Amino acid sequence: MGVKHIVGVGDMRISTNPGDVLVTHALGSCLGVAVHDAAAGVGGLLHVMLPQSSINPDKARANPYMFVDTGVPAFFHRLYDAGAVKRRCVIAVAGGSNVNGGDGDRFAIGKRNYLVLRKMLWKNGLLIKTEDVGGSIARTMYLEIGSGSTWLSTAGREMQLV
């Protein structure tokens, strides 16, 4: 494995270095969005917290990556600026869970994050290749830039996505 770069909550990272591995931890109701363009050698990982920026427009202006509706477009613009091409982007998504379990998540943040993401991607002609969303577990997501390999770690067990 190459150099690991941590992507924090409400943040993103893009790399063109084939030795880099991007990782984001604690994907509960948050979503991790990994995007890779093999031909361009570009990949990125986004960790969004909340579905819509309308709840706090000032925070969204200061940090668009906190919200799905502002973070996803900003993330894709940065990917395209780095050389990614829309039709070649392979997208993997993880998170969107109800880590409280049962009916304790009356706000359904995870589910709403996922629905807003799907709608935005669909409207822009982008499809998710693979996903591991929902449930009641937290996940750690990895993206290896050189290969585009994306995998999850949950409770000590690893699962390949792409």
Global outline: globular
Mean pLDDT over the residues: 94
Number of domains: 1
CATH topology: 60s Ribosomal Protein L30, Chain: A
Count of discrete alpha- or pi-helical segments spanning 4 or more residues? 3
The CATH architecture comes to 2-Layer Sandwich
Characteristics:
162 residues; alpha+beta; single chain; five-stranded mixed beta sheet; 22% helix; 60s Ribosomal Protein L30, Chain: A
Architecture overview:
This protein is an alpha+beta fold and 162 residues long. It has a single domain (3-145), classed as 2-Layer Sandwich (60s Ribosomal Protein L30, Chain: A). The protein contains three helices and ten strands, in the order E-E-E-E-E-H-H-E-H-E-E-E-E. The strands form two sheets. It has a five-stranded mixed sheet, with no helix packed on it. Strands 2-5-4-6-7 form a five-stranded mixed sheet, covered by helices on one side. It is globular, with a radius of gyration of 15 Å. The mean pLDDT is 94.
